[in-house]
Amino acid sequence: MSLAVDIIKNNGSSERFDRDKLHKSIVSVCISVRAPHGQAEATAHSVCDAVIDWLASRPEVTSADIRTIAGKHLKRYHPEAAYLYEQHHIII
Amino acid sequence: MGIPISLAIIAFAALIHASFQLSVSMLTMLSGHAIGAKHSQKKLFNLTTNFLLGTATLTLLLITGLSFILVNLFGADTPQMVWAGACGLLFGVAISIWMFYYRRAKGTALWIPRGVAKYLHDRTKATSMGAEAFGLGMSSVAGEILFIIAPLIIGALAITQLPGVWQLLGVGIYTIISLSSITVVWMLIGGGHTLGRIQKWRENNKYFLQFVAGAGLIVLSFFVYVYEILGTAVGGM
Q1: Which of A6, A34, B119, B156 has its Cβ near the most Cβ atoms within 10 Å?
Q2: How many other CB atoms sit within 10 Å of the CB of residue B72?
Q3: B143 HSE (CA, 13 A, CB side)
Q4: Residue B106 three-state SS
Q5: Chain segment A11-35, per-residue pLDDT in tens
């Protein structure tokens, strides 16, 4: 599902918000901290819903905004996954 | 320089080498992507083991290559000027590590060019075969060459002071000890520890590791300077 929201990426390019992409990244980070698959899917579903609610009134946001909001909501469901999600771009 | 002193210098230089973190960061990321992509435990083991072997291979090549060059240049009679230069390099790198090693921000981002970091990040994410992981392990050593060159050179100089067969032992000791930190992380991942806990420990202790690496280089520099330069000068009087 795509919302009519443009995401400005770090390199300046933009793309349409893609729920599936966000969902996959949340599932992936939950599984990487050894969460059960069902829990990872449910968590990703809830986080994506929360991000879409937040995006509803915003026509244009940055990818860093999406990451911050998704991380904030993920923290409620799985703090360790949220920590790794935040750290992903600042490990190296 | 006697055999025990040379081996002690090699072991200490390798221990300082082990405290550098690029390979550990990349291994953590590689494991995260492999687990997140739902690869089997066997595949995870294959990728991380190949990464470790790649790191070991380039470290072994660097320490043997440097030792070979130094033996051919100076034999066992390394000029004091070279020892003094190596001590200066150790001291300079130690100060650089204290000032620059980690970026002053959240996370464990290192002071390496951002272009290189992004390339390594993207390659780590794209790695799905053992051969790629092996190359990535080698890249992780090459990416940190500016910092590891100091312990590598002093280790190689100490190796040149050893008799023939002992040089092989020196190379082995350096390689094995320099891989100790990444081997511990490899075992933790294989043993089922979560990456979040490993990364949290690394982030919480990053300034301590930075201090220890810099202090270790200064102690090593001081010891080698006193033993090789001052000791020889006083002994020669």
Answers
A1: B156
A2: 9
A3: 28
A4: coil
A5: 888 899 999 999 999 999 999 998 9
Q: Residue B121 has which token pair?
A: 């990040």
CB–CB of B210/B101 below 8 Å? yes
- Residues of chain A whose beta carbon is less than 8 angstroms from a beta carbon of chain B are 27-29, 31-34, 80-81, 83-84, 86-92
Residue B128 lies in a domain: yes
Query: CA B102: distance to chain centroid?
Result: 16
How does pLDDT run along chain B (237 residues), one tens digit per residue? 789 999 999 999 999 999 999 999 999 999 999 998 888 889 999 999 999 999 999 999 999 999 999 999 998 889 999 999 999 999 999 999 999 999 988 889 998 888 888 889 999 989 999 999 999 999 999 999 999 999 999 999 999 999 989 999 999 999 999 999 999 999 999 998 888 999 999 999 999 999 999 999 999 999 999 999 888 776 654
Domain that holds residue B111: 3-231
Four-CA torsion B75, B77, B80, B81, nearest 10 degrees: -30
Q: Is the backbone of residue B107 left (phi > 0), alpha (psi -120 to 50) or beta?
A: left
User: What region, left, alpha or beta, does residue A16 occupy, with left being phi > 0 and alpha being psi -120 to 50 degrees?
Assistant: beta
Does residue B150 contact residue B93 with C-beta atoms inside 8 Å?
yes
Name the packing angle between helices B206-224 and B145-160 (round to 10°): 30
Report how many domains make up chain B. 1
Kindly state the tokens that stand for B100.
């620059």
Residues of A in contact with B197 (CB under 8 A): 80
A2 - beta bridge partners?
A: A18
Contact A34 B117 (CB under 8 A): no
Residue B236: inside a domain, yes or no?
Answer: no
- Give the angle B33-B131-A92 at the CA atoms, nearest 5°: 40
Cβ <8 Å between B196 and A31: no
Residues B47, B130: contact at Cβ < 8 Å?
yes
